[in-house]
Amino acid sequence: MPFKSKAQRRKFAALLVEGKITPETFEEWNRETGSAQLPERVRSKKKTASVKRTTRKAASRKRAADATRATRKPADRKATTKRTAGKKRTSRKRSVAK
Description:
Blueprint: H1 6-18, H2 23-33, H3 56-71, H4 74-81
């Protein structure tokens, strides 16, 4: 398999010096690359955005939820979205270091 970049060739040379790969492996890669002009670094290609499709059941559930939200009165909507509705608020005292 040929080298893809100059950085990859340097990395393999370092691995050869450390003894982690054999000289035959390095030579094989070098031979397959030949005298090709390599880029300094290679980046991965960007993935294309995939279209997210909803199932029929999920789509109908969403339409039903939207319809329910549209028919509610503003007062009802405010009471149901507020997390502290019906809870008693308590304040905490901060201790001051002296």
